[in-house]
Design goal:
Layout lengths: L1 H34 L3 H19 L4 H18 L2 H18 L2 H16 L4 H18 L2 H18 L4 H14 L2 H17 L6 H14 L3 H15 L5 H17 L3 H18 L3 H16 L2 H14 L6 H18 L2 H53 L6 H38 L4 E6 L2 E5 L1 H7 L11 H7 L2 E3 L3 H11 L4 E10 L4 E10 L7 E8 L1 H23 L3 E5 L5 E4 L1 H11 L17 H14 L4 E9 L2 E14 L2 E11 L1 H12 L1 H10 L3 E6 L4 E4 L1 H7 L3 H4 L4 H4 L7 H12 L3 E7 L4 E10 L2 E8 L1 H23 L3 E7 L5 E6 L1 H10 L5 H4 L20 H14 L3 E9 L2 E13 L5 E10 L1 H47 L9 H25 L2 H6 L1 H15 L3 E7 L6 H22 L3 E8 L3 E8 L14 H12 L3 E6 L5 E8 H6 L4
Parallel strand pairs: 22-23
Antiparallel strand pairs: 1-2, 1-6, 3-4, 4-5, 5-6, 7-8, 7-11, 9-10, 10-11, 12-13, 12-16, 14-15, 15-16, 17-18, 17-21, 19-20, 20-21, 23-24, 24-26, 25-26
Helix pairs in contact: 1-18, 2-3, 3-4, 4-5, 4-6, 5-6, 6-7, 7-8, 8-9, 10-11, 11-12, 12-13, 12-14, 13-14, 14-15, 14-16, 15-16, 16-17, 17-18, 35-36, 35-40, 38-39, 39-40
Length: 1148
């Protein structure tokens, strides 16, 4: 009953669908007849579906996404739908951007923009300008990109949509171009839009994003400011996840600035927050903290944090963070000198790294498999639906039958169209799948090649797009190949493959150039296709064929070698029957048995009798049990003793033993020599006791045969008690150690070995001389532990020093003073050579090493009129004589460009603790100086503008107000209520007049009017006159040269002079001030000197505002500021400003 009701329900639903479909088709046809635009709605719906498929497909397969978008584009062009055509072009441009093909992206988007201009849809034009801006910014065309973004913003404002993304893209581009002010402007615009949309609580997200952008641009200090602002907005909220994440990013920026202590403080906060909520950033913060501790040298804390990270990762599959933890551990243990643990963790790190790579490959393969399964399932579902729809044919009513017939006709048309489209799509997807196969794939039909992937085209030399319809033989002939197999034989194999599921053969091809190629051809019949077709897999096996030929050649050479040797070589199977043998063995056996030898004969002939037969039978049985051994056999022939060494080697096939190989060599002469040597053994024993090295001898069973006194001392045993005992039973801890392996290898190869090895059980190093012989092994050895420890310490120190010397970012130079007083170069790092090649192109380290310092130093940017060669050499001699480190900052002018360096001279003691070498470390501060100069320009410009504004406010507002108050008080003085009130009014008037004078004086001090009206010299003279009035001292002025300076420079010089005069008046207690201002060819020089009480410059507070202000203004002008003073000897300030920089920057 339930089944019947369900079937009835399905029939009713099917009828309704068919009825509605027929009605819809009828209305559609009517509308088409009336308006001529019937297909537009269907086309629009189909285009929208294709665009949706393209958006979904581009995530995992860009090729499939392009195919959908191109199909939508063609359909829109055919239907004349301009908007849909423009959107399809935009989609193709977006996929091209995703694939990195920016030229193709610009082409598609520009076509879409042209179509958008034909419509009245401003939103389409906004999208075009936005996409073009993104594309041009990716390829570095920032000006063009900015123009598109600004146009899109203008159109967006006209629409009133206020797109936040456009504002952020514009701000990001300005930040990339270095226009910070404009970037901040548009960031604020985006923030304003967010606030207007009731997203004020999310403003900290924008600040965090701005910080991340600056972070990626390596502007770490500015990024920290934005992170701090975001954290300030988050205060008071319980959003611990965001607090931990932003604090983690701030710590990353601090690490990039090498502020490790500050980074540790931030990471502690982040870890505390993340532990409270169990955030996934906890492991990353822990690993970063461990890495910072490694930089700070706090290795134990780094190890503890790394192990904590591994504990957190126990139940997780985050292999990336686990590899970082292992990397931190092996670096920490390596820095501590614990190389065993460092090696263990380094191995784990390498294994995890390999696992990550394998995991990525597996995910790619799984994605392709899931895609393939999904498509197969979709085809099966579509076929099932089709079968269900075609089986419903039992409608009773005649009217319903007519409507059903019409609906079935329409449905058949739709199904045929969809099936055709599905076949086209399936064919494209299969061809795309074949392109990703590592083997060559060719699809053959009776008519010829239907499809050929890139790998097959490369193997056959067909080019990228072989002509379809050709046979495979025609295609390879066109590529310059001919087949060693006849055309008829090849065609028979192809024809036979159509009637069987699978066939395989090897195909030899010869190119016209003479190159021979071997292909392994797999023929697979496709059963799912109606037309007979084959799927041909091609694999290039040329290298394998060459290897097989080489192996056959080597086998022939090996057989020739075995047959040409005088030794006996033979092999037997389990039944002791001969498998193979060489000619000497055959001749020997034939001489004994009297008949020719052949494979399969028993190796122990039945005619053999006596003890010799049983002895050899035991040897063969022993070898057939899998034991490898060697025997020395003696045979008496005609009263003469002959000796032979016979080796037995089991033959394994996998884990199965299939026979034994035997090698016999005549060692009669060798044995006679051995017996002669044994006769003199006592003589050598006496000599062995006299040598200082330890000496031991073993037989073939590793039993002690001799131990001298020194060996007994090192072993801690009585030599006599060891004789006859097995070394590995007496010292079992040595089994498997390098010494154990060396002894066995020497005996096996019968070669002398000299090794130095570490013996872990005793924690000692030994130098061993191993002498193998057929009777055993002799070893001379002595303890070299102390020497090894010294060598390892020296090597480690040299490696560390070399790594530091060559990896630092500063320029480094090591020089040595000669007896004549000159300095000779010992070595220099690459950074110093780069600086030197500016003035001496092509100079190498070999040319520099051993050269006198005066031969090249005077030609570098380090030496000029401000820093003479003699002055530099004097500093170096002074450092050697004092034995102390000298540090100083150096500013030089070269080719009109100011250079700043921080120089450190460190004396190094040589033999006899005499200082004869110097290490010069030179840090280039030029970029920092330029940055400070730009910052100071902005700061002091803002200060002067504020001074000017305040001075104007004082003069125009406060002074006028006080003047009006003074006039009112004067008017009141004519009409006092009583004589008792008159003194009060007079006193008030006096204070008002004083306030007017003070405000005018303060206004002139803040912004001296003489600077603007009369220039620098008049302002300095006015300042000197005011100084004379304040204190009874003399001011001596001297001006030389032309002082046509910019207002900005005049103001800076006046502020420096004003600050110097104020310091003299406050602290110096001087009687005279000398001021000299000169304009010379090389620049401007300012000298201010007094005869006051002086001071010690080193004791001066570095945070003093006055001196720091003077120093900052000099840096702003690119000059050099020098302060010299001694107690009770006055103070001298010297300022030198290069004229070249000032002219080039427009400051003079």
């Amino acid at each position: 009953m339930i089944i019947y009701v369900r079937r009835t329900h399905i029939r009713i639903r099917l009828f309704l669908v068919l009825y509605l479909s027929s009605a819809f088709s009828f209305n559609l046809v009517c509308a088409q007849q009336e308006t001529g635009s019937g297909p537009l709605l269907a086309d629009s719906l189909q285009i929208a579906e294709l665009m949706k498929r393209s958006a979904m497909a581009r995530r995992y397969d860009m090729g499939l996404g392009i195919a959908y978008a191109q199909e939508a584009l063609c359909l829109a062009q055919e239907a004349g739908l301009v908007r849909q055509e423009a959107r399809a072009l935009y989609r193709l441009g977006g996929i091209a951007i995703q694939g990195g093909d920016f030229e193709e992206a610009i082409h598609y988007i520009s076509q879409g923009k042209q179509l958008a201009e034909q419509t009245d849809d401003d939103r389409l034009r906004v999208s075009a300008h936005n996409l073009l801006g993104l594309t041009h910014s990716r390829v570095g065309n920032y000006e063009v990109a900015l123009e598109h973004f600004l146009t899109a913003l203008k159109l967006d404002e006209q629409l009133g949509s206020k797109d936040i993304t456009l504002a952020e893209h514009t701000a990001d581009l300005y930040a990339t171009m270095g226009d910070t002010a404009s970037a901040v402007k548009y960031y604020r615009h985006a923030l304003h839009i967010r606030k207007s949309r009731a997203e004020r609580e999310e403003a900290w997200r924008l600040l965090e994003k701005e910080g991340v952008i600056l972070h990626t641009q390596k502007k770490y200090a500015r990024a920290i400011v934005y992170y701090d602002s975001a954290l300030l907005l988050l205060q008071g909220q319980q959003n611990l996840t965001s607090l931990g994440r932003i604090t983690h990013r701030k710590a990353l920026a601090l690490v990039a600035l090498h502020e490790y202590e500050a980074a540790i403080q931030e990471l502690r906060k982040a870890i505390a927050w993340q532990e409270e909520i169990g955030d996934h950033f906890l492991i990353q913060s822990t690993n970063l903290a461990a890495k910072v501790y490694i930089h700070l040298g706090r290795l134990q804390q780094a190890i503890a944090l790394s192990k904590k990270s591994l504990e957190l990762l126990q139940n997780r599959k985050d292999l990336t963070e686990k590899s970082v933890a292992y990397q931190n551990l092996y670096q920490a243990y390596g820095s501590m000198g614990d190389f065993r643990r460092a090696y263990v963790y380094h191995q784990r790190y390498g294994q995890l790294k390999d696992s990550l790579m394998n995991q990525q490959k597996s995910l790619q393969i799984l994605g392709l498999q899931m895609k393939f399964d999904h498509e197969n399932q979709a085809d099966e579902n579509e076929k099932l639906l089709l079968a269900n729809q075609l089986n419903e044919k039992t409608i009773r009513n005649q009217l319903y039958v007519i409507l059903l017939a019409l609906a079935l006709l329409l449905l058949a048309f739709v199904l045929i169209y969809n099936f055709h489209q599905a076949r086209l799509q399936s064919r494209a997807e299969y061809e795309l799948l074949y392109e990703h196969v590592n083997e060559g794939v060719v699809m053959l039909e009776r008519e010829g090649i239907r499809h050929c992937n890139r790998k097959a085209a490369d193997i056959l030399g067909l080019g990228r797009h072989p002509l379809k319809g050709q046979s495979l033989l025609q295609a390879i002939q066109q590529a310059g190949f001919h087949s060693r197999m006849s055309d008829a034989s090849f065609q028979r194999k192809i024809t036979a493959a159509y009637s069987q599921d699978f066939s395989l053969f090897e195909w030899e091809l010869v190119h016209t150039s003479g190159k021979v190629s071997w292909l392994e051809v797999h023929l697979n019949r496709l059963k799912t296709r109606k037309l007979p077709s084959l799927l041909v897999f091609l694999r290039d096996i040329s290298e394998r064929k060459a290897a097989e030929e080489q192996l056959a050649l080597e086998l022939r050479e090996k057989n020739a070698l075995i047959n040409n040797t005088d030794d006996l070589v033979w092999s037997i199977d389990h039944q002791m029957r001969l498998r193979s043998f060489n000619q000497p063995f055959a001749r020997m056996m034939e001489s004994v048995t009297g008949r020719p030898l052949k494979a399969g004969d028993l190796v122990i002939d039945p005619a053999f009798v006596g003890e010799l037969v049983e002895k050899w039978r035991r040897h063969y049985e022993r070898a057939l049990k899998g034991e490898k051994f060697m025997i020395t056999d003696a045979t008496e022939i005609d009263g003469q003793m002959y000796f032979a060494d016979t080796s037995f080697y089991p033959i394994m096939e996998g884990d199965k033993l299939i026979g034994v190989s035997c090698f016999s060599k005549d060692v009669t002469e060798k044995m006679h020599a051995t017996l002669a040597l044994k006769a003199s053994e006592e003589k050598y024993r006496t000599q062995m006791e006299r040598i200082t090295d330890a000496f031991v001898a073993f037989d073939n069973d590793w039993n002690y045969t001799y131990v001298n006194a020194k060996a007994g001392e090192l072993l801690g045993r009585d030599p006599a008690s060891l004789i006859g005992k097995n070394v590995w039973e007496e010292f079992p801890e040595g089994v498997g150690q390098p010494f154990y392996q060396a002894l066995h290898e020497a005996r096996r190869k019968q070669q002398f070995m000299h090794i130095e090895l570490y013996y872990p059980p005793w924690d000692k190093w030994y130098e061993d001389h191993i002498y193998p012989s057929p009777e055993g092994v002799s070893v001379f050895y002595h303890d070299i532990t102390e020497r090894k420890k010294t060598q390892q310490a020296l090597q480690q120190r040299e490696a560390q020093l070399s790594l530091i010397f060559n990896s630092v970012a500063e320029m480094m130079l090591l020089v040595k003073r000669q007896p004549a007083g000159i300095f000779v170069v010992e070595t220099a790092n690459e950074k110093f050579l780069e600086m030197l090649r500016v003035s001496l192109p092509g100079i190498s380290m070999d040319q520099l090493r051993g050269a006198a310092l005066n031969e090249f130093l005077s030609q570098t940017v380090l030496i000029n009129e401000w820093e003479s060669y003699e002055r530099s050499i004097g500093r170096m001699h002074k450092a050697l004589e004092s034995g102390e480190v000298h540090r100083f900052e150096l500013k030089t002018l070269s080719k009109g460009k100011l250079h700043a360096y921080q120089v450190s001279i460190t004396p190094i003691a040589g033999l006899g603790n005499q200082y004869d070498m110097l290490l010069l470390v030179i840090h280039d501060l030029s970029e920092k100086l330029q940055q400070e100069e730009r910052t100071l320009n902005a700061v002091y410009s803002a200060i002067e503008r504020e001074r000017k504004r305040i001075a104007g406010e004082l003069h125009d507002s406060l002074t006028q107000t006080l003047s009006i108050a003074s006039m009112n008080l004067k008017n009141l003085s004519y009409d006092f209520p009583s004589l008792e009130e008159a003194p009060k009014y007079a006193k008030a008037l006096y204070f008002v007049e004083e306030a007017i004078d003070e405000s005018r004086s303060l206004s002139h001090r803040i912004m001296p009017k003489a600077i603007e009206d009369f220039g620098l010299l008049a302002s300095v003279e006015e300042l000197a006159e005011k100084t004379r009035k304040v204190q009874p001292l003399e001011v001596h002025l001297q001006f030389e040269g032309d002082f046509a300076l910019s207002k900005e420079m005049e103001l800076n010089l006046f502020r420096i002079i004003q600050e110097a005069f104020n310091n003299i008046l406050k602290h110096a207690r001087a009687n005279n001030i000398w001021l000299s201002l000169k304009r010379e060819a090389s620049g401007l020089s300012l000298l201010i000197k007094d005869d006051g009480r002086g001071f010690v410059p080193q004791s001066l507070d570095k945070q003093g505002i006055g001196l720091r202000s003077m120093q900052g203004r000099v840096n702003q002008m690119g000059g050099i500021f020098v302060l010299e003073s001694q107690p009770f000897a006055g103070t001298c300030i010297s300022v030198t400003i290069p004229i070249h920089d000032q002219v080039s920057s427009g400051k003079i």
